[in-house]
Amino acid sequence: MRVTLLAFGMLRELLGNGAAPLDLPAGATAGDVLERCRALAPEKDGLWSSVAVAVNEEYVRVGHRLAEGDEVALLPPVSGGAGEKPYVRIVHERIAAQEIVAPLERAEDGAVTIFDGIVRNHSRGRTTLYLEYEAYEAMALKKMEELAAEAMARYPVRNVALVHRLGHLEVGESSVLVAVFSAHRGAAFDACRWLIDTLKQTVPIWKKEFFEDGAVWAQGDPFPAELKPGLSGGEG
Fold this sequence. Notes:
Layout: E1 2-7, H1 9-15, E2 19-23, H2 30-38, H3 45-48, E3 52-55, E4 58-60, E5 71-75, E6 87-91, H4 97-104, E7 111-118, E8 122-123, E9 126-135, H5 137-154, E10 159-165, E11 167-170, E12 174-182, H6 185-202, E13 205-211, E14 214-217
Parallel strand pairs: 1-5, 6-10
Antiparallel strand pairs: 1-2, 3-4, 3-5, 7-12, 8-9, 9-11, 9-13, 10-12, 13-14
Helix pairs in contact: 5-6
């Protein structure tokens, strides 16, 4: 199977060609093309993690299957790339969404999707007084940075903001903020949902809920199977 590979900006210089035929095995995906090109310059890992892929002038995910004659374009971050990094923070003060989001917006963003997780006034059929969050902070920040980078590799988005607050939170305050900046809304929605769902399953942050009649640690989502240690013992 033969496709046409297009590269732009710094990728054109890195690969040494802006347009070239590329022979691939049947069933190859957009991700296969990306990985083949990544192997030519593995030292640029930070750049490859933010590259978007378009097939026949439409953004696609890495699992998109290619067909004979497709035009596959590798697109570096449109704002220039090297200095464009996800905004990832763990904070102990109030999260002000617009103070974070507005400075990260760019003219090329056609969509900004925001998830703002807010402390509600009830849980488990009881009135919530306040929450307290704690974390294995160094590991939590590292995992959040990895999630942001993976989101930018999985989805054709330009940038990501991921912020979580620790400590004492009152009702109405934000506990977590996810913002995704993209040319198109579909990618922004998909990446935002994936980020918050995956954060809840994999980042070591815990919530304690305080009520008038006591307090309880929230039962979090179970770790994915691949993260469980597989303790021995028990039957057998």
